[in-house]
Amino acid sequence: MENSLKKIKVPTLIIHGNKDTIFPIHSGRKINNLIKNSKFVVFEGSDHIIVLNDFAKLSTEINKFVNELK
User: Fold this and answer.
1) In the prediction, which pLDDT does 38 show?
2) Domains: count for the chain
3) In a domain, 16, yes or no
4) 14: which strand partners?
5) Are 46 and 20 a contacting pair, CB within 8 Å?
6) What pTM, to 2 d.p., does this model score?
């Protein structure tokens, strides 16, 4: 998996909840370090299901990331 992540060259947004019990936050940080052009955002108090539990916050962060690419 690490070799695959190192091959990613496009801007990548990584969002991780600090209360994620499925994948610890250090997993997200490791992915961030392996993908050269990535941005790592931590959602305080969020768990693994960010897309359901923090949809508005997630949408805002994705829009901000995409607009920064322009």
Assistant:
1) 98
2) 1
3) yes
4) 40
5) yes
6) 0.91
Farthest-apart Cα atoms in the chain, separation:
35
Please tell me the distance from the alpha carbon of residue 51 to that of residue 57, in angstroms, as a whole number: 9
Span 11-60, pLDDT tens digits: 999 999 999 999 999 999 999 999 999 999 999 999 999 999 999 999 99
- DSSP secondary structure letter of residue 49: -
* Enclosing domain of residue 23: 2-61
Pairing of strands 38-43, 12-17: parallel
Is 51 part of a structural domain of the chain?
Answer: yes
Q: Please check the confidence at residue 70 and state whether its pLDDT lies above 90.
A: no
Which residue's entry shows tokens 């916050």? 57
